[in-house]
């Protein structure tokens, strides 16, 4: 039996054989706490589309997990991803508007400059740690710019983000929970001056997400909703994009024939990024709560059950993807679920693809013969899949 809170040996190194057994033998896998892991593509696709039977509101789950008076409870129950309409509709509308084609086109030159600068800094070093020096440095700058956070104040953002998202893991130590709660508290205090300044001096709402959040039309966000969704934007755009870039570079080192193919045909980068997302989804699990009793693969699931959506397993389902364990840089169609689906499809998917396309493409141009070195270290999480360390030799 697959148990999220008691993972089998070797899971973090390679979870995909375990996901395969789940799909084949227990596609609706009951957990000791009464929750259920679902791993087949068709089931996840159905659940994402049915927002009546499967809701995103997690108050009933997060209350017992964090305590209803905790900073983590306040954050996660007010952020976009764990809400249904009307809050989800209001905040999503703001974010979608800020990710319009004009705004993204304006961001691209700055992103090119940022990545070129990071690649320049690696020049001549021989060996670098790619998460700190490259993959993790890119989204912090991008999201920092979206929210208008002064560049010289961004140092703590990554640690806060990792701690807050880490608290979503199925099992927490007291230390992890305390670090997550303190990070929410510190993040809110950090934002206070920035938000008050933006209220007094609004930016261009076409490109300034924080200004848009403050000056929403119609029903304005409450103060709690405003602060917590600022935190959510940074968290959602940070770790997942870091994982996308790091996982992509690791995959290309593991499949050097594919790396040579991509270098020889750089136009493949757009479909390649989606294949990296499918093969090593930065976000491996999502969640929904049932509102009615349902039956799935012979298992009766009561109302109020927490459903763990195994995106990492669904993205290698042979019923949806031919040769799912094979990397195909030109795979079409590629309707992976790395960005979830339905009403909660990731708002920043176009921005994430752009970051991945430019970061991986420019890295290959500059360092086509890089080699990942011993000492690569996975992040050790269930929900998020990426590297904590990814040392590489640049040749």
Q: What does this protein structure show overall?
A:
The chain is an alpha+beta fold. Helix content is 51%, strand content 10%. The protein is built from 16 helices and twelve strands. It has helices at 16-25, 41-49, 59-66, 71-78, 87-98, 101-122, 130-135, 137-147, 157-166, 174-200, 209-214, 223-254, 256-264, 269-279, 311-314, 349-366, and strands at residues 28-30, 36-38, 54-55, 127-129, 285-290, 294-296, 299-301, 306-310, 371-372, 377-378, 387-389, 391-393. The strands form four sheets. The chain has a five-stranded mixed beta sheet with strand order 1-2-8-5-3, with helices on both faces. Strands 4-12-9 form a three-stranded antiparallel beta sheet. A two-stranded antiparallel ribbon has the order 6-7. A hairpin with a 5-residue loop joins β1 (28-30) and β2. α6 packs antiparallel against α8 (137-147) and α9 (157-166) crosses α10 (174-200). The N and C termini lie far apart (45 Å). The mean pLDDT is 94.
